[in-house]
Amino acid sequence: MMTDENSEIMLKPLVFRVDENTPEVVKNVLLERGWNKYNEDVQDVADWNLYWRTSAFRMIDHSNVKPWQRLNHHPGTTRLTRKDYLARHLKYMKGVYGASLYAFSPITFIMPNDYIKFVAEYSREKEVLGTKPSYWICKPAELSRGRGIMIFSDLKDLIFDCATVVQKYISNPFLIARYKCDLRIYVCVAGFRPLTIYLYQEGLVRFATEKFDLSNLKNNCAHLTNSSVNKTGASYKENKEGVGRGCKWTLSKFLAYLRNQDVDDLLLWQKINHLVILTILSIAPSVPSASNCFDLFGFDVLIDDKFKPWLLEVNFSPGLSLDCSTDVSVKRKLIHDIIELMHFKQTCLRKTKKEPGEASGHWPHVSWTGSDKDRVCETSKHWCKISWAEGKQDHETAGQWINISQFGQKSIIYAPSRHPSHNQESCISSNIFSLLQGKAYNNDLIALQKNVKVFPKEMSTAKPKEMKVSRGSVPSAFPKIRNKQTTFKSLRYSPSSESHKKKKNITPYFLSDKGMRPCSHAGDFVLIFPFNEATLAATKNGLDLKKVIHELQRFVNRQTIPEAEDKTKKT
Ligand code: ADP
Questions:
Q1: What is the distance between the alpha carbons of residues 516 and 511, in angstroms, rounded to a whole number?
Q2: C-beta of residue 463 within 8 angstroms of C-beta of residue 69
C-alpha cells in the first residue's frame, strides 16, 4: 500500500461507550482487548462502536444508530424480562400451541387481575391434596435480586401492594446435600429479525446457603438462590457439605456432577435449549424492529428432582459483578466471547498527520446520506457531493468511478461497486476523507485502487457482523465473504466446546444478505436458533412462527417421555 509523507495506514482502535452503571468487567475486558473508551469531550458524537449500558436505550438511540455501531439492548424486551409480561406471553403461547409444549413454565397468576382465578386454582388444588399443603411464591413483577419475594401455603398469607405474580412454588427441587440450587443460563439474542439465538455453554449454578426445609417458608437463605440474598447469610463463608464455600458453581462443574450421578446431562441440556427457544419465540413477533443491537439475557432455570427444567424468570442485564472466583472465570470469558460473537473488527484507515486542533488518535468519521444516485459525504469539517459516474464500469472488479464535487472542483476516485456494501463504503469514505483534506491526489488515487482491490480479505472493518447494508447486498463479483457455510444438523448439545474454541474465524452475517447464515459459534456461544434448514427458511421475510413451532414440536416429541418413565436419570 502506498503512503506519502503525510499519511500512514493504521488500524483505528475500536471505541466503547459506557454510562455510570456499566459493569466494570465489561470495561476491563474491552480495554484488555485494545478498545478505547469514548470521550465525549474530544470525540465526535458518533465516534464509537459499542455502547454498553445496564438500562434500556431510548427509541431515538436506536433510530440514530450508525452502521458501525452496536447497542447492547434491543428495544421492547421487557416483554421477556418483566415477570408479569413474560407470564402473559407464555400463557398466550400455551393457549395457541398447547400447554404441554410450554410445560416448563410454572402456572402463574398476575395480580391483582387474576386474583379470582388464583383463588379458584388454589381451592381446586387444596381439594386434590387434601391435608397436604400446597406451596406458592409471590414475586413483585418489576423487582429483582429476591427483593419482596415471599413463599406461602395459606391463602391468608398472600399480601401484595404492587404489580405482582403468584407462581406455583416448585417444592421438589433437585438438591445437592439438601441445598437447593438454580441455573443461570446466558443467552445472547444477536437479532430478532431474523431471529438468531446463541446459548452459552458455560454458566453459573447458584446455591441456597441453608438446607432446604418446607417447614420454614420464611428462611430466604434456604428457599431463594439469589447470591445477593445468600452472600449476606450466616453460612455463606462456611465450607458447606457437598457444596463448599460461597454459593456458586460453574455450570460445567454442575453438569459433571450430574454425569457422575449417572444423570443424562445431555438430555437435560437439550430440554434447556428448547425452553430457551420457546420462551424467546413467545415475544419475538411483537418485538419492534431494530438493527445493530443485541441482548444478553440471564435465564433462571430450576431443576426439579425428576430433572425437569423449570423457567423461573428471564433477567435483563444479568448481574456482572465479580463476587467470587467462579464469577471471575465465567463472566470475564462471557464478555470476551460476546465481543467475538459480535464480530467487531478494526477499520483500516489512512491516518493523516494531525491537523491543528485535531486531537491525536481520534478519527473523524465520514457519514453518507442522500439518494442512490447523488449522495453527500461529510465529515465534521468537510463535505462533498458524490455522483456515480454512469457507464464507467471496471469489468475486472465490477467497480465504479465516483465523481466528487468539492467546492466547485471535480475529482474522481475509484469505488468497488455502484452498490458498495457498508464495508466497502467505509473504505471509500476513509479515502474520500483524505481527499477532502487536500492530500496528494495522484498518490491517493493509486493507493485507493490498490486498497479497494484487496478488500475485504486484507481489510478489516469496524462494522458489526449483523449490519444492514445500506444499498443492496454485497455484489457477487466482489471477493467472496460467504465462504464458510454453517451446516445445521440438529438441535445439538455441545458439552465440550473445545472444537469451537479452535475455530476463531466467524463468517460475517449480513442481515440484508438473505443467503447468509449466522455463524455457528463464537467462543462458548453456540447457535441454537435457527437450528435446521426449515427454521432458517422460516426466519426469512419475517418469522413464520407456526412453522418454527412445528419443527420444534418434532424435536420436543422425540424427547417427551411420560414423567413415570423419565429417562433423564439413566437406568
Ligand atoms: P428475582 O428477580 O427477584 O431474582 P426470581 O423469579 O428469579 O426473582 O426468584 C428468586 C429466587 O426464588 C429464584 O432464584 C429461586 O431460587 C426462587 N424461586 C423463584 N420462583 C420459584 C418457583 N416458582 N419455585 C421455586 N423457587 C422459585
A1: 8
A2: no
Mutate to test the pocket of ligand 1, among 224, 229, 301 (most ligand atoms within 8 A of CB): 224
Q: DSSP readout, 323-391?
A: -SHHHHHHHHHHHHHHHHHHT---EEEEEEPPPTTPPTT-----EEEE-SSEEEEE-SS-EEEEEEEEE
Binding site membership of 508 for ligand 1 (Cβ less than 6 Å): no
* 137 Cα: distance to centroid of ligand 1 (angstroms): 8
Q: pLDDT tens across 254-271, in order?
A: 999 999 999 999 999 999
Residues ≥6 apart with Cβ < 8 Å to 464: 49, 68, 69, 70, 292, 342, 343, 344
All three cell numbers of 51: 455502547
| 3-class DSSP assignment, residue 536 | helix
Cell reading at 116: 379470582
Q: Ligand 1 pocket, 105 CB below 6 A?
A: no
- Among the residue ranges 207-216, 219-228, 432-441, the one predicted with the least confidence is 432-441
| Res. 561 pLDDT band, cuts 50 70 90 | low
Contacts of 147 (CB under 8 A, 6+ apart): 140
Grid cell locating 176: 445437592
Query: Reduced to 3 states, what is the DSSP secondary structure of residue 16?
Result: strand
Candidates 465, 460, 461, 456; CA nearest to 527 is 465
Residue among 9, 12, 13, 14 at smallest CA distance from 350 = 9
Supply the DSSP string of 544-559, one letter for each residue. -HHHHHHHHHHHHHHH
Q: Which residues contact 516 (CB under 8 A, 6 or more apart)?
A: 482, 507, 508, 509, 510
Nearest Cα neighbor of 236 from 252, 250, 220 is 220
Say how many C-beta atoms besides its own lie within 10 A of residue 501's C-beta: 12
| Ligand 1 near 170 CB (within 6 A) | yes
Strand ranges, E, within 353-502: 367-370, 374-378, 383-394, 399-406, 409-415
CA dihedral over 264, 267, 273, 275, signed as positive or negative: negative
Whole-angstrom Cα distance, residue 336 to residue 326?
A: 16
pLDDT for the residue numbered 571: 45
Q: Give the chain's mean pLDDT.
A: 76
Is residue 139's pLDDT more than 70? yes
93-to-37, 90, 438 alpha-carbon distances in Å: 43, 5, 61
Q: Say how far apart CA 337 and CA 343 lie, in whole Å.
A: 10
CA distance 367 to 238: 58
Ligand 1 within 6 A of 167 CB? yes
User: Which 3-state string (H, E, C) describes 228-280?
Assistant: HHHCCCCCCCCCECCCECCCEEEHHHHHHHHHHCCECHHHHHHHHHHHHHHHH
pLDDT of residue 9: 54
Q: Which residue has its alpha carbon closest to ligand 1 atom 11? A: 224
CA-to-CA separations, 294 to 81, 142, 286, in angstroms, rounded: 15, 22, 16
Give CA angle at 175 (173, 179), nearest 5°: 110
Q: Give 400-434 pLDDT, tens digit per residue.
A: 445 454 434 445 554 545 455 554 555 555 555 55
